[in-house]
What we know:
- By secondary structure, this protein is of the alpha+beta class.
- The protein folds into 2 domains: 2-261, Jelly Rolls (Sandwich), CATH 2.60.120.10; 265-337, no CATH class.
- 29% of the residues lie in helices and 23% in strands.
- InterPro entries: Cupin_8 (IPR041667), JmjC_dom (IPR003347), RmlC-like_jellyroll (IPR014710).
Amino acid sequence: MADVLSALPYVEEREVADAAALDAMLRGADRPFVLRGLARDWPLVQAGLRSAAEARQYLLQHAVERLFVVSVAAPETEGRMFYDDAMQMNFRTSKGTLPTIFAKIDEGERQEQSPAIYLASIDVHEHFRGLHDANHIDLGSRDALASIWIGTKTRIAAHNDFPDNLACCAAGRRRFTLLPPEQFRNLYLGPVDNTPAGRAISMVDFENPDFAAHPRFRDAMDHAQVAELEPGDALFIPSMWWHHVQGLAPFNVLVNYWWRDTPRFLGQPQDALNHAMMTIRDLPAKDRKIWRDLFDHYVFDADESVTAHIPEKARSVLAPLTAETAGRLRAFLLRTLSR
Length: 339
């Protein structure tokens, strides 16, 4: 399958002159693109270009004295952070100080076979002091969450995220295989409540796919694109696009930014999907049809006809939500769920 992946088309590459141009490019973007060298001037990138050891030392200089969550997988997993045969995680998660974790990575670099070590989605502001100030992308008025991902060679199963994502390779090399949102049926998704990191993942091994078990995956590959990032390169991943991620170097660092164009008080759509599975999916077909019609009326096809007959001041949560009405609705849901 490696030959198939290498034959996939590459993600479009673009160029930006400054922060204003980047802001304009990101606004309304709905397809992935690569920006070569966007973060090339970061001190972290420059340290990593000199050596992996210098990149680790640079990070240690900025690390806060606190515990970091780290995942470790046995050498035989070959860095694939996934399920075992019992559908439990094939890695163990614990906490440790960053110097201790990096010492294990140092040790592994001297061994022929070593465990995969992975620090995933570490909040930059909470775990490092001054790192963001010296190494960040100007995203204008976007209220972005900055995360850092640090690890040895790893393979992260295809998954998607609700926010938009700008991922910057700070050290090592990364390969992303991307697919549009509608390809979820061809990716053979796993459980929604037993996941490596909170999002359902593809059960297909992109490096060694079993087409007998996952025949529709061939159709998914017809829509796939690849982005290979060197230090300083950035990739924009639109909301809900599927991405399989490989850390290709012995030591890899990625910094990414998540943001959404809608207010955070609107909550997470995945919560609504989970609740619908609990309350609607197993109803008789005739009842599901009624609820589908109601969802269309109030959610998917909602227009002025939903509220035209209700006095404007009495429309409450049927009107466009505000922070106040969203909070009131959330409190109502919490009361009903706790019964």
